[in-house]
Amino acid sequence: MNENAILIPLFVVVPLAGAFLIALLGRRFSFLPDLLGSLVTLVLLGLSLAAVRVVYFDSMLVYPLGGWKAPIGITLVMDGLTSFMLATTNVVAFSIAIYARDYMEGYTSKGMFYSLFLLMLAGMNGVIVAGDIFNLFVFLEIAAVSSYALVAFGTERHALEAAFKYAVMGTMGSLFILLGIVLLYGLTSTLNMADMSHMLSFKDDQNLILMVCVLFLMGFGLKSALVPFHAWLPDAHPSAPAPISAMLSGILIKSLGVYALVRIFFHVIGMTSTLSSILMFLGVLSMMVGVLLAIGQWDLKRLLAYHSISQVGYVVFAIGLGTPLGLMAGLFHLFNHSIFKSLLFLNSGAVEYATGTRDLKKMGGLQKKMPVTSGTCFVASLSIAGIPPFNGFWSKLIIIIAAVKAGHPIYAIWAVLASILTLASFMKVMKYAFLGELRNKWQEVKEVPVFMQGAMISLALICMLGGVLILSGVEDVFLKPAAMTLVEGFNYSGMVFRNQ
Amino acid sequence: MIYILCLILFCVGIYGVLGKRNLIKMIVGITIAEHAVLLFFILLGYRNNGRAPILSEEVLITQMVDPIPQALVLTAIVIGLGSTALLIALAMRLYGKYGTYDIAKIKELRG
After folding, report:
1. Beta-carbon separation of A168 and B44 below 8 A
2. Contacts of B33 in chain A (CB under 8 A)
3. Tell me: the pLDDT tens digits for B29-64?
4. Which domain holds residue A61?
5. Which of A161, A174, A189 sits opposite B94 (nearest CB)?
6. Residue A68: Cβ-neighbour burial (10 angstroms; 0-12, 13-18, 19+)
7. Measured between CA atoms, how close is A55 to chain B, in angstroms?
8. CATH (residue range B2-47+63-98)
9. Where are the domains of chain B?
10. What's the gap in Å between the CA of A358 and the closest CA on chain B?
11. What's the predicted TM-score (pTM) here?
């Protein structure tokens, strides 16, 4: 065991301990939730950057829990993909924790909020580091159950309704995943993902594996809101408080849905051409349906939620291409979407905080009163629409190039079309919310508090500088290791056993 | 044969979620489907006339029940308890706001 491997369990332990302490002491010391919430996410951010550095030198670390080695014991694994996802998650989580400090003043029991928030973060980090398929399920449920509770946090009529819908569909999704895991266990008699993929290479039971693939596609498709399974997302994401919308849209659907799907398909079951064409088709379908439904929306957060469906479609499509360039593009877009979609939800929260409305028709001219919000929203809108200097442009460009190179020019055209429609719908947001004449009733509107501004500005800076990540030197540190772990999927089990 | 019963139970649960309009009946449906999956998991590890896999010197173990599914099912039951409790809490709050458990009357979110 490498001595740096002690880093891995900390990603789960630190937020879990934070959630516990806040739940225990949050009522007695009112300063504690804010302090611990920011501190824990800051520590996690530092740890995840350290993880990126460690993976750059060591390429894979394995932590056997309690000292029991791999096929018997439970392992936590850290490779390029893990450190990439951890960095993405914790960057977003830190800025959201800072933002929530002032935003959540309007709600009661802030301690509960931070407690659930950190619990959700612990679940997501756990899903990312898990090397054991049942542990992946347990962490997934921790994150999912706390996210149901967080969607209902406002306890208003629509929030409760959306949370109930989300909870029912989410629980059904988890059941399909559990059934898939049960069938895989029945086939291989092991739960360790590395051992499982090793065992599966000797089995020749195509029908059962196909069944498992379908179950996982349904389960994780529900979690990541791919199009036939997307019905809960446009209700659940807008009904949550803004920091939680940002968390759900930015990272929850990716770490629970896309990441877990990719990890299992690439490293345990093994990608086949059928699977990759299904993923590409679902990706393109989500891309188009999401953006078409988004254009007609007048509720700002609902519009953003539909765009999440569309952008996750891009990620899944690019990963479905299966070529090294496509995988890298998909992961890069995943990172970019986490940043700019969280930023957009934080902007919508700032507008709601200042004006009390989410209806685009009632806004107008807010640019003069809220320069920081409108500026950062402008950056994020241009990023998501794919306008050159910003990060969204580079990832979409690589996705389209990869699609053409892989021999799918038709899909590439759909991707371009979806991008143009995205631009159109964000022009609408900018025009109705921030540009134009200031309405009389917004004369008294003030810019949001400084911590909320800070969170939005830092995410906007990442949006502007995100393109740097694909420069040839920088790419080797962050994106390449993640894409390479997927390209060399068949090596996974050997690597895990060698490194423990 | 008994696997088929699990499948039927699972389908009953799915029907409860999709076909019923009452929130509580939907929750019951979820619980039924969940228990069908758990029962299936237990049955996968079951052997006829098997005994508990406890190592002792007097008895030679020839037939034993696979203990891993049992351990995992315990975990899954606890998770299921958590999500069911949350669902029921949500249903209670919904009843407080709307005065009904009928899903057809609780639909403000559209489009």
Report:
1. no
2. 172, 175
3. 999 999 999 999 998 888 777 777 777 777 776 778
4. 3-499
5. A161
6. exposed
7. 32
8. 1.10.287.3510
9. 2-47+63-98
10. 15
11. 0.93
